[in-house]
Amino acid sequence: MRVDAFDFDLPDARIALRPAKPRDAARMLVVGPDVGQLEDAIVGDLASYLMAGDLLVFNDTKVIPARLSGTRARGDATAHVEVTLHQRFSADAWLAFAKPAKRLAEGDVIVFSEALSAVVVDRDGGQVHLQFPVAGAELDTAIATAGVMPLPPYIASKRATDDADLSDYQTLFAKEPGAVAAPTAGLHFTPDMLSRLQKKGVESARVTLHVGAGTFLPVTAQDTLEHKMHSETGIVSEETAIKIAEAKKRGGRVVAVGTTSSRLLEAASAGGHVEAWEGATDIFITPGYAFRAVDILLTNFHLPKSTLFMLVSAFRSLDEMQAAYAHAIAQEYRFYSYGDACLIFRST
């Protein structure tokens, strides 16, 4: 499909710079199972749209302070550079986006702090392969000390990161460090909301997909067939695979919390049903894709012409999601990572 088909006009005023407080007070547009069925609600109402026996699947990845500022030294010349780590290459190496990348070359040393530096192994456009002198937990600690929370570019360009973001940009389920972007649909959940869902008989499970900064990269191709999808690493445990199979068997629905959870579940169901799985996935879901695992999707509102808007358009249809987004814009819903939510049912 042409990428232009996934475009829409979004006023800057609709981009949320701070989350709703409390988290479950965010608005929620419900795209019901019938064509054209739209309902305005709030995230705290989620339990009323689910049934006993349904299974919520959360992404338990934890965002690391992956944005680093440093100085490149080359002889007597120095230059300031910023890098955003986006994919771990090994215990002591990361792939990162650099700005400005043209200031870096193979062999350059970037000093981020007294305790943290890295060597540029190679550079490919705006991406660099960084080799660190420490590894594992020691490297994680050094990054946590020197880095800052990597807010999405559409927020970072409008305001500075502050202490509030340390908790605001982390979900209630954050456990496994490795993401450089939050699985933002999970940001809406509170302990009280989880309690209401449990009382309703809605069960839950966890997966881990370490979200990379590539999720924010624009689609520059003119056709979806020409786009190269970024890769992210994830895990679906045997326990979660069993919970999903049991939910399906009893007639419950699998509710993916976020596009990250949905992409991972679909990657793990190549054989027709979800199996225990671990590895890297670059699954690219566009209209025409037949979903195997996910029955309901809770997600935020996404960028025009983004791979995430393509995914939700595959979950329903492009026409329906364009109409839903037009409604959200007209009703002044808040968009993107700190914005409102959209609960999408599979079409009947």
Structural commentary:
The longest helix is centred in the C-terminal third of the chain and has 13 residues, at 318-330. The radius of gyration is 20 Å and the shape is globular. Helix 8 (307-315) packs across helix 9. The strands form 3 sheets. A 9-stranded mixed beta sheet has the order 2-1-17-16-14-3-12-13-15, with helices on one face. A 6-stranded antiparallel beta barrel has the order 5-6-7-10-9-8. The chain has 9 helices and 17 strands. The protein folds into 2 domains: 3-63 and 167-345, 3-Layer(aba) Sandwich (QueA-like), CATH 3.40.1780.10; 67-147, QueA-like (Thrombin, subunit H), CATH 2.40.10. With 348 residues, it is an alpha/beta fold.
Brief descriptors of the model:
single chain; 348 residues; alpha/beta; QueA-like; Thrombin, subunit H; 9-stranded mixed sheet; 6-stranded antiparallel β-barrel; 9 helices; globular
